[in-house]
Amino acid sequence: MLAQETSESLLRVHAPDGACADLQLVQPVPAARDVLLWLPALGVAARNYLPLARELAGRGVAVALHEWRGNGSSDRRAARAQDWGYRELLEYDIAASRLALRTALPHARLWLGGHSLGGQLATLAAALAPESVAGLVLVASGSPYWRRFRHAWLILPIYLAVPRIASVCGYFPGRRLGFGGREARGVMADWARSGRSGRYAARGVRQDLEAALARVGMPVLALRLEDDWLGPKASLDWLLGKMPAAPQETLVVGAQDLDGAPADHFGWMKKPSMIARTVANKITEYQ
Prior knowledge:
It contains 9 helices and 10 strands. The protein is globular, with a radius of gyration of 18 Å. It has a single domain (about 5-145, about 205-285), classed as CATH 3.40.50.1820. The chain has helices spanning about 50-60, 85-105, 115-130, 150-170, 175, 185-195, 210-215, 235-240, 275-285, and strands at about 5-15, 20-30, 35-40, 60-65, 110-115, 135-140, 170-175, 180-185, 220-225, 250-255. It has an 8-stranded mixed β-sheet with strand order 1-2-4-3-5-6-9-10, with helices on both faces.
């Protein structure tokens, strides 16, 4: 049942190295028992998930929309003189958003979730700091490992070319190339490395990410879009297979579930009601 009221606010979040961005908080009134920290897809500003956040808040789950460094409300922009990678995103920015939520909603259970790359980094963040994380929610996500895609021989050259393009330009010009946004060299190098090897490792991250994933024991809800060639079943299965100790549930979403919107990597964002309803119901079940 939809909540009678929701409220929206902005929390200015500061990372340990001085970077800052807005954390958009959408919550039901009265306060929610659960809050979902949501991480966007590569190159997608947090505000694009407001329809999803409002639907979830209307069903009793608060949502905090994290902003990627270099995007939207962030005070940084990728350039030759401004670079960062997964380490900064995981250890600085996501950690800062978690701390802000703990202060704003100290009694709410924290869930981590995300779309595409956001789902991958939510999984890594939960594995690195599992304390107080109730569970994971993945939508249109999966490992970028090249062998898990159709026409894999076309995918591998992309993982070889992207870091080189970023090195020449000083940043990755994703908007001009039709993939992602203006992305930092380090982010694309870490992404491409996982795409080539099928394993997660990041420059400057001391922890063994694969070992951390193997220890994840929290519940994982994964929603796969039926026509999503960027997040096929094999890709999602590869990611979920890294967490054998975690209770997992995978649901497939088709166009019939989205009021006619395409059941692909981004189409679901136009009609997120069914996904919001499913996520809210599952979070309630896990209580």
